[in-house]
């Protein structure tokens, strides 16, 4: 038995950390979320494409790195640590769906996605109200798609959308006149969600029944790994502040009431690491309980990250409430990831449904 | 990463499971619900169960063969404990003797001590209890005041110990006592003391469950022989602290395995009363399932690190907080969801059977206090993992 990453994945993790620290540190995240219309750095995503990051899960024959879910989780944990903005997980999910689809259109788009020439994201959700995505009503008839999708991540910038319809997943290329989209700004200033009205040509992808579930599960796992990174770094930032800031003539870190809260933050973070990487490993190995473990990991990570990143603000005191200090950047991303890729409540329900001990 | 058990380990697990099936005549919960049992006869059930486990070679598995062991790995011990906890077996009376005293004797004892004490401890012909805590020394154990004064070659012990599990049935007690009043840690020594002697008085303590499984012990010049001193005078604290770290792999999977059974019972009960489709009920159950599975993931990680030869770290503090606080939430939820029937005494003819949730509810209150309270565990995490300063 071994919990640690193997040498290949450890090298991937450490080189990802080096890359992010050099090219996309938190300061960069902050300037992008405040000043960039796109909300992310297309140049850095070009670099990620060049280094093969969008093909992490593809086999070597497909031109990928075959790093599996464990490798992806390691990368996303690192991206969470700098709260990297932009559609990375969305791109990986799009690649995973396209590689499962038959036909030249999908294959061609996949090549462009992997090469960094096309941004492809999912348009899965309908309706604005409610914790769960509304029922799918978007229709594809005689090669024409009609409907409305909400909370499409970085949709305005996308070159193509993968749209869930009543008849399956449709591939929609950006119209010449651009998308008919409306911005949906949320509390997470690094997000660029839009609502998109669809009324134009589209093509149905040929996919197996399992494909959509597999890719959604990957999204849940990826979100959980990102949440792990967010809380990992929030804890670090908080510990550094507690060591340096003094009150009543002593560092905050010496006060037992705060020590116990910090201990709870560590427990939440480390248990999430255990849950996320076990789920990733089970996914790679095709273990029968992999779907259950992913639901467990996402449910746990969402609650844990909200607590840890929320505590980070509280432990900083007044400055934790300022725009200048970093804790809010992490908590805001947590709120996005908690709500999408299967909300915490939806994952709790999935865990109950799939738990071996709950079977009749 | 590799969290898979080997074929040999899985075979071992299957063998243990099969052995339990053919040797456990009656689950422990049925004994407890049987009004004909007395506290003494329940201890006898546990003693007989320990004898069976010993004869099958399952006790002290990680020890050298000479002392009844089979050189079992951390993983095998963890799998064994998980199966035992899954199957609603009686707890063995000498769990503290086997868990703490055995390793202390093997690593720090004399050949004569091992020969004299290990065989009857494993066979349960002698029951051991632990004399560490004192009325004024709980979380701050090193402040203990029971003293051992020289008497010729031997020692005379005077003081009081408390929370001695199985004390009322024990024949021997292993005791931490001061041979030096000044030296806080270096003045503590480790003694083996027979209970049946003038100068030792054992009184049962009635717990909130109504049982008297614990006792308090009064020493008034009790005799501890020189040959029953473990290690040298002054080595007691170090021995006690190091044995607490041995065989910690064994418990990594047992709590989630036990709680699997409890949750299965709870879900079956909720289903039988027609409440399983209620959204609020489902969320409560789902959260418990998630939390228990996260504990298992954490246990697998600890076990994998141990199996890979990494030194055990403070993750046992994390584990202790997780299971003890989970057990309270779990029984809170059970009593809430199952209603007052779950509060009926298990011997009542109207009791629901299965897990005695009222007992679990009360007993789980102790888990966050004994073996280092949750507050002590959080101190350990803050100081040893996070490196935070003491004021």
Describe the structure.
The complex is a heterodimer of chains A (360) and B (391). Chain A contains 11 helices and 10 strands. In chain A, α4 (68-81) packs antiparallel against α8 (256-285), α7 (209-244) runs antiparallel to α8 and α7 (209-244) packs antiparallel against α10. The model of chain A has no long low-confidence stretch (mean pLDDT 96). The radius of gyration of chain A is 20 Å and the shape is globular. Chain A has 360 residues and is of the alpha+beta class. Chain A has helices at residues 7-23, 26-35, 42-50, 68-81, 88-100, 104-114, 209-244, 256-285, 290-316, 327-339, 344-354, and strands at residues 120-123, 139-141, 144-153, 160-165, 168-173, 180-183, 193-201, 203-204, 246-247, 250-251. Helix content of chain A is 53%, strand content 13%. In chain A, strands 1-4-5-8 form a 4-stranded mixed β-sheet. Chain B has 391 residues and is α+β, with helices and mostly antiparallel strands. Chain B has 3 domains: 7-92, Butyryl-Coa Dehydrogenase, subunit A, domain 1 (Orthogonal Bundle); 128-234, Butyryl-CoA Dehydrogenase, subunit A, domain 2 (Beta Barrel); 252-385, Butyryl-CoA Dehydrogenase, subunit A, domain 3, CATH 1.20.140.10. Chain B has helices at 7-23, 28-32, 39-55, 74-86, 95-108, 111-123, 236-245, 254-272, 279-307, 315-338, 357-367, 374-385, and strands at 128-131, 147-151, 154-162, 172-178, 188-194, 200-205, 214-224, 229-230. In chain B, α1 runs parallel beside α4 (74-86) and α5 (95-108) packs across α7 (236-245). The mean pLDDT of chain B is 94. The chains are: A alpha+beta (360), B alpha+beta (391). At the A-B interface, β10, α8, α9 and α11 of A face α8, α9, α10 and α12 of B.
